[in-house]
Amino acid sequence: MKFQDIYRYFQEPPPIYLSKEVAVCYVLSVLIDHGDSYGTALIQLVENKHPLYRLSDTVLYSALKFLEDEGVIRGYWQKVEGRGRPRRMYEVAPEKSEEAKKLGLLWHKYLGEEQLVSKAQQLRSS
Known about the structure:
By secondary structure, the chain is α+β, with helices and mostly antiparallel strands. It is built from 6 helices and 5 strands, in the order αβαβαβαββαα. Helix 2 packs across helix 5.
């Protein structure tokens, strides 16, 4: 190892892979903030919007299954123009929206965006 290697590490840090717990909060945050989504879009969004983070297929689909089993989200099939098979879409179950919002806020806290979350909550309540 050389000093150049250390500088390079901090200039171009390796990606951080999300754990299942964080992935659950991320998924709910996206579904609440952006509406219904699907697996590939969730993976691409985290990479595009937060380049330091990565979400593996295995962790994502494990998180989605957990959320479906808990009744927090629902999956449904949507036919997509120009695509042979339907796409599996996910939405927040209306009866679990408060729980989903609480967990979704943890994603923003994980990113260190607590100030943004607090301001958004204040604006909604006024």
